[in-house]
Amino acid sequence: MKAALVSGAGIGIGAATARALGRDGYHVFVSDILEAEGQAVVADIVDDGGAAEFVLLDVTDTAAAEALVADIEARFGHVSALVANAGIAPRAGYQILTDEKWDKVFDVNLKGQLRLIRAAAPAMSAARQGAIVCVSSIAGAVAGWDDHWHYSAAKAGITGLVKAAAVELAKHNVRVNGVAPGFVRTAQILSEENSLGPAGLAEAEKTVPMGRAADPAELADVIAFLLSDKASYVTGQTIIVDGGLTVAL
Ligand SMILES: NC(=O)c1ccc[n+]([C@@H]2O[C@H](COP(=O)([O-])OP(=O)(O)OC[C@H]3O[C@@H](n4cnc5c(N)ncnc54)[C@H](O)[C@@H]3O)[C@@H](O)[C@H]2O)c1
Q1: Separation of 15 CA from ligand 1 center, angstroms?
Q2: Protein residue closest via CA to atom 19 of ligand 1
C-alpha cells in the first residue's frame, strides 16, 4: 500500500483531500494540530473502507516533521503522495503587520511546506516514485488581498517553491505541483475576524462567474488528480481552481 501524508487535514480542504486519497487507496496520514477533528477524518476514511491514521503535527516543528516522515518511510518505504496544505490567514493591516506576525505566517504557510518536502524528497527520489502538491491561493499566485500582505507574499512564494522543487526533482521522476484556490467554503473563509465571514462570502460569490464558492471536495479532486498518474507529465504548475474568478473582467 502507498502512503499519503496531508498536513492540516483535520478540517477544510485538507480533510476533503485526505478523504479523497483514502478512496484512491492510499494509507492516509491525517496530520494536524487539531486532534479531535483529525481523528474524525480518520474514522470517516476507515468507515469508507480505507486506511488512515492521525498524527499530531505542527508544521512549524522541523524535528517533528522529519520524525513523522522517517516513521512513514520505515513502514512504507517512502511517502508516495505529499499534500502541503496547512495554512493560516490572520488579518493584519500593514500598519500593524509586525515582524512577528509576518514571520508566523511565513513559518506556517511557506516554510511549513518546505519542512515536509525537504524531509520526504530524498526517499521519493531514491524510489523514483511519488508526487507532491502544495496549496497556494489566488491571493498571491494571481492577485493580492488587502490586510493580508504576509499571506499573499507567502502564497506567492509557494509558486516559486513549487517550480524550483519541480525542476530539481523531475530527474528523479518526482512531480511537484500547486493548486491556487479561489473562494472555498471552509472555516478559514467563514471567519469574520480574519476573512470574509458568511455575509462577505455571500457577496463575494456574486463576483464569481460560476456564481458560488467551491466545496472543499472540488479542491480535493484536483489535488488527487495532480497526485495521480493521470497527471504523469504535469510538473511545476500551480493550477488555479476558482470558478473563473481571476479570468473575469
Ligand atoms: N478557504 C479558502 O477560500 C482558501 C482559498 C485559498 C487558499 N486556501 C488555502 O487552503 C489551505 C487550507 O485552508 P482551508 O480553507 O481548508 O482552511 P481551514 O482553516 O479550514 O484549515 C486549515 C488547516 O490547517 C491547520 N493548521 C493551521 N496551522 C497549522 C500548523 N501550524 N500545523 C499544522 N496544521 C496547521 C488547521 O488546524 C486546519 O486544519 C490553506 O493553506 C489556505 O491558505 C484556502
Answers
A1: 10
A2: 188
Is position 24 within any domain? Answer: yes
Q: How far is the CA of 126 from the centre of ligand 1 (A)?
A: 30
Radius of gyration in angstroms for the set of CA atoms belonging to the chain, rounded to a whole number: 17
> Which tens digits make up the pLDDT trace of 39-95?
999 999 999 999 999 999 999 999 999 999 999 999 999 999 999 999 999 999 999
| Each residue's pLDDT tens digit, 157-172 | 999 999 999 999 999 9
Report which of 227, 2, 194 is spatially closest to residue 93, judged by C-alpha positions. Answer: 194
Quote the number of domains for the chain: 1
- Residue 249 inside a domain? The answer is no
Compute, in angstroms, the gap from residue 180 CA to the centroid of ligand 1.
12
What tens digit of pLDDT does each residue of 170-205 get? 999 999 999 999 999 999 999 999 999 999 999 999
Q: b/e string for 141-175 if b means 16 or more Cβ within 10 A?
A: bbbebebbbbbbbbbbbbbebbbebbeebeebebb
Q: What is the CATH number of the domain that holds 227?
A: 3.40.50.720
Is pTM, for the whole model, over 0.90? Answer: yes
Q: Whose CA is nearest to atom 7 of ligand 1?
A: 137
Q: Name 53's bridge partners.
A: 29
Mutate to test the pocket of ligand 1, among 30, 116, 184 (most ligand atoms within 8 A of CB): 184
Distance between CA 214 and CA 179 in Å, rounded?
13
Distance separating alpha carbons of residues 222 and 225, to the nearest angstrom: 5
Residue nearest to atom 34 of ligand 1 (CA): 8
**Residue numbers annotated as active site:** 151
Range of the domain at 222: 3-244
